[in-house]
Amino acid sequence: MEVEDGAELCFPQLLNTSCRKPTTSLPETILITIVLYFISVFTAALNLLVIIAVSHFRQLHTPTNILLLSLAVSDFLMGLLVIPGELVLRTSCWLFGDIVCTLCGYTSFIIMSSSIGDMVLISVDRYVAICDPLHYTTRVTVKTVKVCVCLCWLGAALYNCPFLKDNLIKPDSFNSCHGECVSVINHIAGAVDLFISFIVPISVIVVLYTRVFVVAVSQARAMRSHITAVTLQLSVNQKKKKSELKAARTLGVLVVVFLICFCPYYCVTLAGGYLPNSVFVSSVHCLFFLNSCLNPLIYALFYSWFRKAVKLIVSLQILQPGSCETNIL
Q1: How far apart are CA 21 and CA 88, in angstroms?
Q2: Is residue 15 part of a domain?
Q3: What integer is the mean pLDDT of 102-131?
Q4: Is 246 left (phi over 0), alpha (psi -120 to 50) or beta?
Q5: 18 forms bridges with which residues in the sheet?
Q6: How confident is the model over 287-313, as pLDDT tens digits?
Q7: How many domains does the chain have?
């Protein structure tokens, strides 16, 4: 009997301090492993394509694409680090020590915060482009956007420090046994974090995109009612305006998918201990991770430049001299 008990422990040699191995059923374990594994691989691979495309082709170095690059970095790290860590926690014991556990938890919070920050920046970018197009080129420059992206990542790192202070100072303070990896935020800090990192950003995103949608509809009607172009300049302006509207629709889809994937996760987080660790909770977490995989698919569906860039990357044509100057648009 003692041997059987020892076989169920994460560290059989530590009988009194070792955690027991997860007791999920075999079918559930297999399902979670397969789903999270494929989400992880496809998320990392697809977002790596976005990172290479925007970084390599000079024609893609626009303010909007810089924001998409930052979001792709967040999603890539989600697929490379966060999802595999979640897979380990759900299917086996944590064998990498308390310090790595704390760093993984801290990194996960940074990636989540930066993703939300990127979505807010994307909404602001589209708001200025559609609602104040005359000042867009002067207010939203590549340099300005790069500074905003850097501040977003730095802010995400600094913002999460107070919430995880106890975990960072003493990594093993919340682990009840060896083989466990837990990051704990007290109820007050959790409520503040929920308000600052979810309610406020989501409200900003919804308000800005509602305004963008209203203006975009009115502009689309105005262009349809315009019968002939008076001058070439007017024709060029209309073409540019159509491009901005198309970008707004594409990024609008991106934002809607983001809200669909993130809202259930934060609702479950808000419910906390009131929900059992059920298949429903696992499905919500998978939906949350799936968002990082869906973003590149949205680019592939709506952006011809991304499809063309992928062909050049996969065929290794980007290794040729001067390929960064390729006409990708």
Answers
A1: 11
A2: no
A3: 88
A4: alpha
A5: 178
A6: 888 888 888 888 877 888 889 999 999
A7: 1
Residue range(s) defining the domain that contains residue 253: 26-325
DSSP three-state, residue 131: helix
SS3 label, residue 57: coil
What is the H or E stretch that residue 65 is in?
helix 63-77
- Rounded to 10°, the helix 26-56/279-302 angle is 30
Rg, C-alpha atoms of the chain: 23
Distance of alpha carbon 179 from alpha carbon 174, whole angstroms: 12
Q: Is 199 within the bounds of a domain?
A: yes
Q: Name the phi and psi angles at 67, rounded to 5.
A: -65, -40
Whole-prediction pTM value? 0.84
On whether residue 260 sits in a domain, the answer given is yes
Residue 32 phi, psi dihedral angles, 5° rounding: -60, -40
CATH code of the domain in which 179 resides: 1.20.1070.10
Contact 324, 57 (CB under 8 A): yes
Q: Where are the alpha helices (DSSP H) in 140-186?
A: 142-163, 165-169
Instruction: State the residue for tokens 């790290």.
Output: 77
Q: What is the pLDDT of residue 5?
A: 46
Sign of CA dihedral 243, 293, 107, 187: positive
Q: Do residues 275 and 281 touch, judged by C-beta distance below 8 A?
A: yes
Q: In the structure, what pLDDT confidence band is assigned to residue 111 with cuts at 50, 70 and 90?
A: very high
Would you state the pLDDT for residue 1?
A: 36
Q: Is residue 177 part of a domain?
A: yes
Buried b (16+ CB within 10 A) or exposed e, 3-19: eeeeeebbeeeeeeebb
Mean pLDDT of the chain: 80
Residue corresponding to tokens 């409520």:
191
